[in-house]
Specification:
The chain has 300 residues and is mainly α. The protein is built from 14 helices and no strands.
Length: 300
Amino acid sequence: MFQAFRSPVFALSALAFVPFSIAQPVLADPTASAHVSVEQSEKQRLVSELFEVALFDESLDGWQKMFLSLDPSQCACPGQEDADGRMARTWAQSVAQAFQPEGVSRQVQYVFARTFSVAELKKLIDLANRPLVKRFAAATVATNSLDMPDEALVAAILSQTQRAQSDAALQFALQDIIDTAGFTSEATNAIIEMSIGMTVGILTATPDGMPRADESQIVSEVESTRDQTYYTVQATMLGSAAFAYRDFSVEALREYAEVLRDPLMSRSTDVMATAMSAALRLQGKRIGFHYGRLINAVDL
């Protein structure tokens, strides 16, 4: 079940990943070069402030939990049983050791600094600083940080689902947020990218480090599950949203949906989704490779 709500200020997206250490283009006019450097430095400062206000780094705990919920045997070795639980333990160890939240943050911040102007970043900070938006961000982090047994969490989400379905105004307000922010597509993309990365990483971790399968083939096979993944996520999204936002009134939910409809906010949603997709595939490869090495150390 999808539970990982990212910070509502950012609804997810990603331009192609460009390493943080990429060299700046050399400009003929040194004055112009200095201006670009100063402007880029200011944008990086503003992006850092924006991510701090929006609790972006705190929200990454939810993505780590999503990686933990994946089953490596079903991605890389369909049908393989984990009778003694060793695969699950090794996967949990790999996620703990190989997932790099600071790497995700740097990668996404770089994309924002390259995409938005100084004026746009300042407006996004103003939006993120609104009391209502900050309350939604805090609710997201609180949901990601919950430490509940699976049975209790499922029961709580089911209860909130029933509450939403029995109140037409509440259900409509929640669905409006889900649709406006693109939660269902975002979650589907995240799961697909994480699965692709994980599978590529595992199948690359042979003793000699050579790939066992072509990445394009893996992408094709995982992408073939997109529709099924989408419908699975869609079936649980209302309950997940109702649970995460259970303390908000219908009026507050409606007001938040209007904030999400702001053109700049909508654009930041798309950029975040693309950036996170690229970052999650990269993290999946890291974790999958780590897992494959540990498993192969025993199996081969």
